[in-house]
Design goal:
By secondary structure, the chain is α+β, with helices and mostly antiparallel strands. It has one domain. The protein is built from 6 helices and 4 strands. It has a 4-stranded antiparallel β-sheet with strand order 1-4-2-3, covered by helices on one side. The protein is globular.
Length: 187
Protein backbone atom coordinates (compact mmCIF):
# COMPACT_ATOMS: atom_id res chain seq x y z
CA UNK A 1 0.00 0.00 0.00
CA UNK A 2 2.83 2.43 0.72
CA UNK A 3 3.92 2.17 -2.89
CA UNK A 4 0.52 3.38 -4.08
CA UNK A 5 0.33 6.11 -1.47
CA UNK A 6 3.77 7.41 -2.42
CA UNK A 7 2.91 7.26 -6.12
CA UNK A 8 -0.32 9.16 -5.48
CA UNK A 9 1.48 11.85 -3.47
CA UNK A 10 4.08 12.30 -6.20
CA UNK A 11 1.38 12.45 -8.87
CA UNK A 12 -0.55 15.11 -6.92
CA UNK A 13 2.65 17.13 -6.40
CA UNK A 14 3.43 16.95 -10.11
CA UNK A 15 -0.11 17.90 -11.10
CA UNK A 16 -0.11 20.85 -8.72
CA UNK A 17 3.17 22.06 -10.20
CA UNK A 18 1.86 22.03 -13.76
CA UNK A 19 0.61 25.11 -15.50
CA UNK A 20 -1.93 25.12 -18.29
CA UNK A 21 0.62 26.69 -20.63
CA UNK A 22 2.00 23.38 -21.81
CA UNK A 23 -1.38 22.52 -23.38
CA UNK A 24 -0.96 25.54 -25.64
CA UNK A 25 2.30 24.23 -27.12
CA UNK A 26 0.90 22.41 -30.13
CA UNK A 27 3.25 21.23 -32.85
CA UNK A 28 1.90 21.28 -36.40
CA UNK A 29 3.12 19.39 -39.45
CA UNK A 30 1.36 19.93 -42.79
CA UNK A 31 1.51 17.74 -45.86
CA UNK A 32 -0.59 16.61 -48.81
CA UNK A 33 -1.23 12.92 -49.33
CA UNK A 34 -0.30 13.51 -52.99
CA UNK A 35 3.30 14.01 -51.78
CA UNK A 36 3.41 10.45 -50.50
CA UNK A 37 4.87 7.47 -52.35
CA UNK A 38 2.61 4.53 -53.10
CA UNK A 39 3.61 1.62 -50.90
CA UNK A 40 5.72 -0.99 -52.66
CA UNK A 41 7.74 -2.48 -49.82
CA UNK A 42 9.24 -1.52 -46.46
CA UNK A 43 11.76 0.77 -48.19
CA UNK A 44 9.08 2.95 -49.82
CA UNK A 45 9.45 5.72 -47.26
CA UNK A 46 13.19 6.10 -47.98
CA UNK A 47 12.45 8.22 -51.06
CA UNK A 48 9.45 10.08 -49.68
CA UNK A 49 10.12 13.81 -49.26
CA UNK A 50 7.16 14.24 -46.91
CA UNK A 51 8.59 11.62 -44.57
CA UNK A 52 12.03 13.26 -44.74
CA UNK A 53 10.54 16.62 -43.73
CA UNK A 54 8.68 15.06 -40.81
CA UNK A 55 11.72 13.06 -39.66
CA UNK A 56 14.01 16.10 -39.52
CA UNK A 57 11.74 17.99 -37.17
CA UNK A 58 10.17 15.27 -35.05
CA UNK A 59 12.59 12.36 -34.84
CA UNK A 60 13.34 12.61 -31.11
CA UNK A 61 9.91 13.45 -29.70
CA UNK A 62 8.64 10.74 -27.34
CA UNK A 63 5.44 10.33 -25.35
CA UNK A 64 3.40 11.06 -23.52
CA UNK A 65 1.80 12.76 -26.51
CA UNK A 66 -1.73 13.34 -27.75
CA UNK A 67 -2.02 13.74 -31.52
CA UNK A 68 -4.63 14.20 -34.20
CA UNK A 69 -4.90 14.21 -37.97
CA UNK A 70 -7.30 16.63 -39.61
CA UNK A 71 -8.07 17.78 -43.12
CA UNK A 72 -7.41 21.39 -44.07
CA UNK A 73 -9.73 23.25 -46.41
CA UNK A 74 -10.33 21.30 -49.60
CA UNK A 75 -13.15 20.35 -51.90
CA UNK A 76 -13.23 16.69 -50.88
CA UNK A 77 -16.47 16.00 -49.01
CA UNK A 78 -16.59 13.83 -45.91
CA UNK A 79 -18.81 11.43 -47.86
CA UNK A 80 -16.18 10.99 -50.59
CA UNK A 81 -13.39 10.71 -48.03
CA UNK A 82 -15.22 8.10 -45.96
CA UNK A 83 -16.17 6.11 -49.07
CA UNK A 84 -12.52 5.94 -50.17
CA UNK A 85 -11.39 5.00 -46.67
CA UNK A 86 -14.17 2.44 -46.17
CA UNK A 87 -13.45 0.77 -49.52
CA UNK A 88 -9.86 0.29 -48.43
CA UNK A 89 -10.82 -0.73 -44.87
CA UNK A 90 -13.19 -3.39 -46.17
CA UNK A 91 -10.41 -4.90 -48.32
CA UNK A 92 -8.75 -5.95 -45.01
CA UNK A 93 -5.30 -5.70 -46.59
CA UNK A 94 -4.10 -3.75 -43.54
CA UNK A 95 -5.55 -2.95 -40.14
CA UNK A 96 -7.32 0.40 -39.97
CA UNK A 97 -9.39 2.11 -37.31
CA UNK A 98 -13.15 1.71 -37.64
CA UNK A 99 -15.45 4.52 -38.69
CA UNK A 100 -16.64 6.42 -35.64
CA UNK A 101 -20.24 5.89 -34.65
CA UNK A 102 -21.63 9.02 -36.33
CA UNK A 103 -18.97 9.51 -39.01
CA UNK A 104 -21.37 9.48 -41.96
CA UNK A 105 -23.48 12.27 -40.42
CA UNK A 106 -20.57 14.30 -39.07
CA UNK A 107 -19.23 17.57 -40.43
CA UNK A 108 -15.98 17.20 -38.47
CA UNK A 109 -12.78 17.50 -40.49
CA UNK A 110 -10.74 15.63 -37.87
CA UNK A 111 -9.73 12.20 -39.15
CA UNK A 112 -8.29 10.59 -36.06
CA UNK A 113 -7.26 11.30 -32.48
CA UNK A 114 -4.61 9.17 -30.80
CA UNK A 115 -2.01 9.12 -28.08
CA UNK A 116 1.15 7.39 -27.03
CA UNK A 117 2.64 7.10 -23.57
CA UNK A 118 6.21 6.30 -24.45
CA UNK A 119 6.48 5.59 -28.18
CA UNK A 120 8.29 8.08 -30.39
CA UNK A 121 5.82 10.25 -32.26
CA UNK A 122 7.68 9.52 -35.50
CA UNK A 123 6.82 5.84 -35.09
CA UNK A 124 3.12 6.56 -34.61
CA UNK A 125 3.17 8.91 -37.59
CA UNK A 126 4.97 6.25 -39.67
CA UNK A 127 2.32 3.65 -38.81
CA UNK A 128 -0.46 6.03 -39.84
CA UNK A 129 1.21 6.85 -43.16
CA UNK A 130 0.99 3.13 -44.01
CA UNK A 131 4.70 2.65 -44.65
CA UNK A 132 5.22 0.24 -41.77
CA UNK A 133 5.95 -3.27 -43.05
CA UNK A 134 3.65 -4.98 -40.54
CA UNK A 135 0.12 -4.92 -41.97
CA UNK A 136 -1.52 -5.85 -38.65
CA UNK A 137 -0.43 -2.65 -36.90
CA UNK A 138 -3.47 -0.37 -36.87
CA UNK A 139 -3.14 2.98 -38.56
CA UNK A 140 -4.80 5.29 -41.06
CA UNK A 141 -2.74 3.64 -43.86
CA UNK A 142 -2.79 6.92 -45.80
CA UNK A 143 -0.42 5.83 -48.59
CA UNK A 144 -2.77 2.96 -49.46
CA UNK A 145 -5.93 4.96 -50.14
CA UNK A 146 -5.48 8.73 -49.79
CA UNK A 147 -2.79 9.58 -52.37
CA UNK A 148 -5.23 10.11 -55.28
CA UNK A 149 -7.33 12.44 -53.11
CA UNK A 150 -4.32 14.74 -52.52
CA UNK A 151 -5.71 15.56 -49.08
CA UNK A 152 -4.18 18.53 -47.26
CA UNK A 153 -3.43 16.96 -43.88
CA UNK A 154 -2.66 18.74 -40.64
CA UNK A 155 -0.91 16.53 -38.12
CA UNK A 156 -0.83 18.13 -34.68
CA UNK A 157 0.40 16.95 -31.33
CA UNK A 158 0.78 18.13 -27.77
CA UNK A 159 3.58 16.82 -25.60
CA UNK A 160 2.39 16.15 -22.09
CA UNK A 161 4.43 16.42 -18.95
CA UNK A 162 5.86 12.97 -18.08
CA UNK A 163 3.91 13.11 -14.81
CA UNK A 164 0.76 12.76 -16.91
CA UNK A 165 1.87 9.56 -18.61
CA UNK A 166 -0.89 7.43 -17.09
CA UNK A 167 -3.54 10.07 -17.76
CA UNK A 168 -2.78 10.25 -21.48
CA UNK A 169 -5.85 8.18 -22.41
CA UNK A 170 -8.08 10.43 -20.32
CA UNK A 171 -6.88 13.50 -22.22
CA UNK A 172 -7.16 11.66 -25.53
CA UNK A 173 -10.77 10.68 -24.80
CA UNK A 174 -11.70 14.24 -23.89
CA UNK A 175 -10.05 15.65 -27.01
CA UNK A 176 -11.85 13.06 -29.15
CA UNK A 177 -15.16 13.91 -27.46
CA UNK A 178 -14.73 17.55 -28.46
CA UNK A 179 -13.14 17.10 -31.92
CA UNK A 180 -15.42 14.21 -32.97
CA UNK A 181 -12.96 12.38 -35.26
CA UNK A 182 -14.36 10.51 -38.25
CA UNK A 183 -12.27 7.43 -37.52
CA UNK A 184 -11.55 5.47 -34.36
CA UNK A 185 -13.50 4.56 -31.24
CA UNK A 186 -13.25 6.48 -27.99
CA UNK A 187 -15.10 5.78 -24.76
Amino acid sequence: MDILINYHKKLVENLNALTLDFFKETTLFQFNTGEMNTYVDENTSLNCQMWDRFWKVNSDVTGPVIYWFSIADCEISNEQLLNEFDNYRLSKLRTTPPLSTNAKQSDSRVLYVGSCRSTRIRDRFFWHTGYYKESRTQGLQLCHWAIPLNLPILFQYIRLDPALKYLTNVYESELARVLKPLLGKHK
